[in-house]
Amino acid sequence: MTGRYLGVDLGSTTAKAVVTDAGGVILAASTVQMGAVSQRGMQRAVDAALAEAGVTADDLDGTVATGYGRRLVPGVARTYTEITCHARGTAAMCPGVRLVIDIGGQDSKAITVDESGLVEDFAMNDRCASGTGRFYEVLARALECDLGELADLARQGGRDLEVSSMCATFAETEIVSLLAQGLPAADIAASVHRAIAARTLALVAQVGKRTPVVLTGGVARNRAAVHFLAEALGTEVRVPARPQITGAYGAALLAMESAGRPPAGRAPGQGDADTSVPLFPGPAGADRSCTNCDGTVAALSMPVVVIRDR
Amino acid sequence: MDATQDRSNRLSVTRSGGQLITDYWDNLFRAREQGKQIVWYNGGALNPIFQAAGLAWCHGEAFAARLAAQRLEGPAQLAGAEYGYNAELCSYARTHLGCSVLTLQSTEGEHSGVVGINDSQELAARLPSPDFFVNNYAGCSTGQQWDGISFRVFGKQLPIFNISHPFLWGNKPDAGYLRGEEWESASRYVAGQLRELISFLEAQTGRPFDYDALIEAMTYIKRAAELRREGLDLCQAKPAPATFWDWIACVAPINFLPGDQALVDYFAGVRDEISDRLAAGVSGVRDEKYRLYFDGIMNWNKLGFLSRKFAEHGAAVLCGRYIHNAFWQEPQLIDTADPILGMAQHYLLCPTNHGAKTLDYLTLRDCREYGVDGIVFHSTRTCRAFTGPQRLLAKSAQDKLGIPSIFFEGDVADASFYKEEILESRLAAMLEAIDVRRARGGQLAGALSS
What we know:
CATH superfamily of chain A: ATPase, nucleotide binding domain
Number of helices of chain A: 9
Strand order of the largest sheet of chain A: 8-7-6-9-10-11
Distance between the termini of chain A: 49 Å
Oligomer: heterodimer
Number of strands of chain B: 8
Strand order of the largest sheet of chain B: 2-1-3-4
Distance between the termini of chain B: 35 Å
Largest interface: A-B, 35 and 34 residues
Number of strands of chain A: 11
Helix content of chain A: 25-40%
């Protein structure tokens, strides 16, 4: 027993891996950009995290995978969905969070969590890449800038132009049309950011607005996206220092908690429906629940960066 | 989870229902040769009236569903698109209107565009042309216009009879499910139109309507409906002996097969197999872990697939609006000596014809009775009548019963709107959330008892 746990988030465009110790402290984390769900990309992410933590795969006491490609990850104890893992990881990084907005490469989700960090409700984008990282990539390509420059450009924009399409492909057509009218790139960038924030707001409406709000996923690194989302929500939006790894971190925590707990006894009346291992510590035995957290995890892993509106 | 292992355990008796359906359609395809007049209709089950009038009947939605279930909807939808109906139109209607086009082409010998002679040999092109139309659609504006569009496709040359159904808002002080002045007056209004329909049929057939034949047909249908309800109620057991998917396989028989002894025998067989399973401790899903409610019309392209998919997760889908709130679901309303009023009432009870208050009552009632853990909303892309109130129902179930829900998009007869990973991710996430609640509840229970 080395007390090392691995969480892997094999997403649509990036693979993330996190190694924790037995206290849930992050020892290593890696993020690998890839073309699509890729086992090779996943392996690179895992190898990098293990090397940084100074352990091998044989040293691990548990591995949990999440993300679109979670079933492709070998040697896992079990898999969980991104919903559960993002909620778990974010609640540990940002104690007290009630609304997690995760915007990844291909999907976006709003997750409400209770005071213990348990998922209460969630909503995901419907049928296309609307309001996701892909949407920003389309915008950057059209405006001939990289994603870093895009955020700066958007913060300079003043006018609110109409960008109504829900579809990333059709939105590109709209952007081309705006450029053809000679409108400033900064205004276009700002307007598209506003439109995406409005789409995200519609997602939040499905689960109900709660505060504090934490934004995770690759898009959270875009300061303009955070700014316009905060503006749309009318509240501050918090961002962990490494917002892309919350899902992998949650997976590692679930690996740790699963390994550390004996199978639960069956509750009266629940029969076969019981899980063999509780996903989260319950309030009655809350030795490590988020509401009862001693702050170690947050203090040693990820400081919370608060980006205030305006 | 081992995705290759099929943990569903469907009723075997429904195979005999499949044969009844095949025989029915084959018989309809030959109706013209048999010298029968043919009526095309949509909406509530008017077939007992047509049966008594000596007609052959074609329920447009049912044929579209059959094509989709066999994945043979393509030629009809192409024909519909070629004629001018785009993919945002109800895919039932789009498919059936495409069938109209193919039927016309096969009778008039003209083929053009993307749908040619080879496609017109398909099942979609085998419907016999109608002698007249009847529309009996409640609660859906597309459905109400559907036969009127078919009437136009056929050149406005054939008679049509439209039945109007008041929407049951359910918001007057005395209003409620099956009660109140709104319900009573709407029932009388539709019953009056059914009597006018009978006069219309007498004019079309040139012979007096056979009320004794209607009574006989409705006596069989009432008995079949009672057996169906008995079977549905037996599925409240834990674990459930049969699932929503078994009842989906029973939709066609109760919806449009003739009222006769064969229909009663079929549903007696369904009820008996369920009873036998209960006695033997056999469940509809191996190792049932979760009990779910399904709201939405069936995704007919995906019946077997969805049955296996939910079962893989140990999820028994037990009840749903489409099954429990449709298809002669209140047989006690039928007075076999004078069935017209009870028939009218069932046409009004279409699951898209209720206000949110009644839908809320019905959904929560079934969730309670079946011990449901979660709700799966099939957000049927081209059926806005069904999807309109779904968010309200989800919120109500969460607020009043603490039951979580998920949405996935699909369609009744167009598989292109369905995305596997979306359903998989959302379903797995909801089941994980249910696990969390149970784990927490179990710990709380343990703490309270210690």
